[in-house]
Structure prediction request, 496 residues.
Amino acid sequence: MMEILYKSTRGNGETVTASQAILQGLAADGGLYVPTEIPALDIPMDRLAGMDYRGVAYEVMSRFFTDFTEDELRKCIDSAYDAKFDTEEIAPIREADGMYFLELFHGATIAFKDMALSILPHLMTTAARKNHETKDIVILTATSGDTGKAALAGFADVPGTKIIVFYPKDGVSPIQEKQMVTQKGENTHVVAIKGNFDDAQTGVKNIFNDAVFADRLAKAGYRLSSANSINIGRLIPQVAYYVYGCAQLLKKGRLVHGETLDVTVPTGNFGNILAAYYAKQMGAPIGRLICASNENKVLYDFFATGIYDRNRDFILTSSPSMDILISSNLERLIYRIAGDSEEKTRELMKELSTEGSYTVTDEMRKKISDFYGGYATEEETAGTIRALYEKTGYVLDTHTAVAACVCQKYRKENGNGRKNMVVSTASPFKFTRSVMTALNPDHEKLTDFEMIDELSRIAGVRVPRAIEDIRTAPVRHTTVAEADKMAEAVEAFLGI
Prediction:
């Protein structure tokens, strides 16, 4: 099998192995690690259709993580995709109103982040052994809601690691916050910051880029890494579920050989839809990549104009995991459409940092014609939840509703007749208040857990274990910090 190496989007051509990239997280120059090339999916889809999720995940990840042995990688996969998931399929597909919903919320924290964060701790500890790492790994993560809990659950009490999660105090749902602040594990720490997700994400990146701080940590026996999708070990496992989804639709007879389908992804930080792009580049039968935004429609505007501009009001919506104005993973796409030019990527990222915006060239825009941007307003999101339930009895969370709304708009506007796989990124139980008030404003009178019980009744779905676990769980994390004091919060937790 061809060896795949990794280099920084802002580097000078230096390469590292997959395990080194996973261990490092963010490159020392502030760039993101990308594969030197996208490997081909050199196995027929009909063979993949006969595999379970673990089998498909191995076929995809083994093409990217070429310095892992088969035994190492299979152990990571088997440890990740096990009884933590409430369905043997891991990522089942539900059909409703002509759309195929790829349900990615059957893991321990009922959001799609489980699909990658269940395996990242295993990849990272294996990578540490392979590279003879003796320091404890400190995972720093900024979250808009879902990554935080999934990362905490994945790394809780994993030997040789500590994890610190930063989240915007007023920028996550009540259930998301309760999930994080009740997290067990002696190596876990949760910090609410006074600011929004972009403030948290920028703060984490600044810590990574502080060489003096890194030296202090090293002398204390620690090294930093990340569980955000800036870590290639988070991104590549996400490629697997797109390949699996296509294979399952083929198996079910919903796709035929040679047919392609469009994919609609609710998008904030751009990692999830970038994974779909990588799957398409590998050879998965994917056509258009439909990027669905909420009212923070910075990506919609980018695909419409070629201008990325974060200079705008930050809007708190009912889909908080998408309330993002700096979509970090877009840098990996920019690098690719710039002809793998580190120089051009550095130039554009500097403009984003100093001016808050950048403009891609006409030649670069031609290379993103596979992408289509759409967005849904708050009213459209709520209306989609209500309309789909009334028509089919299927209940969506707010983020998936944004995607479903954009999918429907796209089909009306383009009418290409292709099937569409909509990525369902969270259980409706994670955003119960928004979902239930969309279904009926009278639900507003209920408490959060009364709403949960009522949602279970009307949807005919058992309350997930992740929700039951926090119903009476004690709060363990109460730290609140200013956005410019995040480094001090890390030092306090580590005792340095």
Remarks:
- Residues 93-110+233-462 form a domain with the Rossmann fold fold (CATH 3.40.50.1100).
- The chain has a mean pLDDT of 95.
